[in-house]
Amino acid sequence: MRRRIAVVGGGPAGLTFARVLHRHDHPVTVLERDAAPDARPPGGTLDLHERMGQVALDKAGLLAEFQALSRPEGQAMRILDVDGTVLRDWRPRPGDRANPEIDRGHLRDLLLGPLDVQWGRQVTRVDPGTRDGVLVHFSDRRQETFDLVVGADGAWSRVRPALSTATPHYTGVTLVETSLTDVDTRHPHLAALIGDGSVAVYGVNRGLVAQRNSGGHVKVYAQFRAPLDRPTTLTDAEPSDAGTLRSQVLALFDGWAAPLLDLLRHGTAFVRRPLHVLPVSHTWAHIPGVTLLGDAAHLMPPLGVGANLAMLEGAELAESVAACGPDDLDEAVRAFEEQMWARAGIWATITAAGLDRLVSPDPAAALALFDEVQPG
């Protein structure tokens, strides 16, 4: 009899897990609270690392399709001073595919492929250790039982409480996101400023990053240190009043060069995202039938690692589940968790230190960090 497996969450981690299992001809139920794939904006762009996210896609049999969709030119990175002076201008060499970019929406569609996702299924909690397996409770009061439930449902996971009492804590840094559309035709001076990839500027306890997506779309991220001014919930990342939030953010960057401020002045919708993390060494006592992936397991600052780790974990867990014998599922999951904790702890430490340097009283610390991670 086939094992009943469910993954909660239709993000990169959950879909990679499901897609690799599908490749091994193993059924899996994907439970996603969004009503449809386009129920909300998919987010910005991701750089998928050669030894992480791309490995996961290879395990799913999707690497060639990814390479056709991705944007190697998006690896370009430019650092400016607050007066607009170019401090660093790094461009990828021909054929460099170490960290090509792909829009989150394109990646989601690539991973979805033939998967049968149950949309609009909001999980409220899971109860392991029942007689028939792990009991999953839904917001519509229905229940289902599975042999393995994988929580890939993000920072405010509803699966995590079955394993851990840990909750995300605020880093002291808030990010405000906005967007520019048709930048090449509507704002050519900003298109030239951004280049093919990203432009970043670091000031005293401030940072401003603009990153190209496909189709002339640009995401702009203003980051700054501030107290947490309101509770954070599952729906915290909602659009705010554009005029009010734009004015507040512009005031924080007062004195910066006019073209840099134009990245904010011309933004459309604004979303406030206080950055939260789980403890660096977050682990849990293993419980049969339930485990976690990605942000649900090891939420860390968004410095280009989280999605890559999540996808690699999803692929590795899926391969372990597909390969294990009928009585070895629990041991396979336990071994996966040990491997995940060791690797995630290293990256959580690195990204926590990186955030402290990027948004710090000393802008030179951010520039030094950039020099350490860029080749050549």
UniProtKB/TrEMBL annotation:
Keywords: Cytoplasm, FAD, Flavoprotein, Monooxygenase, NADP, Nucleotide-binding, Oxidoreductase. Its main location: cytoplasm. FAD binds at D47, R104, D295. It is found in: Cytoplasm. GO terms for cellular component: cytoplasm. GO terms for molecular function: FAD binding; monooxygenase activity. Its EC number is 1.14.13.-. It comes from the Bacteria. Monomer. This is Flavin-dependent monooxygenase. It comes from Nonomuraea mesophila.
